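Purpose: get a first structural picture of the assembly so the mutagenesis plan has something to point at.
Setup: two entries, given in the order below. No constraints added.
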Amino acid sequence: MATEILMPALSPTMKEGKVARWLRKPGDAIAAGDVIAEIETDKATMEVEAVDEGTLGQILVPEGTENVAVNTPIAVLLAQGEDASAMPAAVPTAAARPAAAQPSCVPSVAPPTAAPVAPQPEKDWGETAEITVREALRDAMAAELARDEDVFLIGEEVAQYQGAYKVSQGLLDQFGEKRVIDTPITEQGFTGMAIGAALTGLKPIVEFMTMNFAMQAIDQIINSAAKTRYMSGGQMSCPIVFRGPNGAAARVGAQHSQCYASWYGHVPGLKVVAPWSAADAKGLLRAAIRDPNPVVFLENEILYGQRFPCPVDEDFILPIGKAKVEREGRDVTIVTFSIMVGVALEAAAKLAEQGIEAEVINLRTIRPLDTQTVVDSVKKTSRLVTVEEGWPFAGIGAEVAMQVIEHAFDYLDAPPVRVAGADVPMPFAANLEKLALPNTDWIINAVRQVV
Amino acid sequence: MSNETDPGLGGGHNSRAMTEADLKHAYYQMVLIRRFEERSGQLYGMGLIGGFCHLYIGQEAVVVGIQMELKQGDKIITSYRDHGQMLAAGMDPRGVMAELTGREGGYSHGKGGSMHMFSSEKHFYGGHGIVGAQVSLGIGLAFANKYRGTDEVSVTYYGEGASNQGQVYESFNLAALHKLPCLFVLENNRYGMGTSVERASASKALWRNGEPWGIPGMYVDGMDVQAVRAAAAEAVAHCRAGKGPVLLEVDTYRYRGHSMSDPAKYRQRSEVDEIRKTQDPIDRVRRELLAMGVEENELKAMDEQVKAVVTDAAAFAQTSPEPDPSELWTDILVES
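Result (structure tokens, whole complex):
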């Protein structure tokens, strides 16, 4: 059966080219893999290899011919025993290719969403006790390590040193070195290793000494952890938690003071959590460890030592993707997360003295964002102020404001205002550092702009 | 293809030990990969495969020889030049080729493409598009084996181009530190895209690159499937016994460009022709089988069988529908 040899494409963008040279002549025996011709475009010259064996029949496009369209038959390959008059058999061509489906019915930025469900009030977990955020994180890990043999903690100084910030205090003694694993200072290596283990179904908790160092492994987090489920058509998932202190600490300068909420929040395939209180930390970390997806868990070093009431119930857990209204108010909605929740609550208390009742929303989760809670609040207050420690440009405030514009534009009585860290690398000098980070006055001033 | 020093683990990995049945199996597998890749090249040329497409032609003996020493449960991970690994691991040629054409019937329903393909069933962990990134994941697969207390091995393939990536050495350190059952297979096909290994690597004996961490290095002729298999036997046994990782450098050669859109002007056509003429791994096995007394017709029949499989895969890859538009939004997160 004779087959046509088609003008090949050198690249997906090539539409036509030149048949530069024929290296075989009619009558030559051809084996699969033999170079039979050379073709050229303005970018490159490339050899055409035979895919089937046979005898070269008629050359349909002589050498030197320019502007030969891709998929044009350029020669005929004869099977054994055929002569040159044999007609080429039909071969599939690009023309036979089904037209690319035009996803006209598919929205460009968001999946079809279900009708919004009425928000449910947060479960009352009963009795609480005051603990630090540090203790809450440790307790969450201890509970999950005890609950599931597949969970392990890995990172720099997490075991023998008891944690660079003492978050993993006591876990080595309790669970042993198989489950609580010190690593060398090698973020790409241990992050990749943990992701590989997670792809097989283990559930690593990767502690970064600070999230700044996770940038060494951001390729592993995004390209390998976040995208594998999609790229594998749902065959593989990556149940892993990447946690560590995020944002500014105190006087540690530009390379150690940065908020990654916006960076990771940008990525489909990741969940991003940013707790404020001890209850947030404990309930959300337990949920993150149990979540079958990669979760980036952004802590804050300054909060580690702060005490908050936290439910003592052994089963206490919080849902990822649900914001919390920390303070109710009718005049303005302040949307914030992590350490800025405390600052916003202080600002709200001062505003109350001035007769302005601010509603303060603790996002708790950055992705998936609890748009519903924010929108419901703005529909009530008609004013929005976002507060974050990170940089303003393309920050979380920008996204929250856009969500409000999309879902509650008609309810707004004033343009949203964002409060964010200064758009500069973090300075070291004490006075300059203070100038770079949002405080209660910044929030009060922002609120006064819109109320 | 020679190397001045050939350390080996026990020195016996160049022994010729394959039975006729094994050699026939190797022949079939290598021809399958060769014909599959030629057909992929053809479909690419017809515009049916888009984007990047990195062919494995010339390197067939590497994966086939290694795979013959693996058992069910052993894990495999590699770079974007992954079609050979997948076929050797027993993945369905239809599903692989339909992924190349971006169709519903592909292993990832068309969402991964040539460089990003996986099979839970065959313990094939991809198909990774970032040079070297699969190496740290590969030690994680080995870590999981050890954590679970199995004797399974993780085979982590990468090229001599990736061998200059920092994370490879971070991975060596961790694998040695934890004595992970990881076989690092360094496929040295001599060119990282257009840059020859001589111009890219100050280390001239890549199999020794694990020495600072005490990782045993081996070097083997990757155009000789029997030698590859014999080396793999030693290396895999070492890993399986809990003695830690092994680095196996396999000297091989890719006949085609780095990807389909690479005109390969950085080397002489005569270099390719010479290797193809004198060292082709398939020709070599063919000669060996004929010398064993296997009939030409029997080989021909295997060739025809492969041709039918590849033709079927190519037809499937062109008739399988494109993924439903709703697939755009699935498999991003596990819904809980």
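Chain B has one domain: 20-314.
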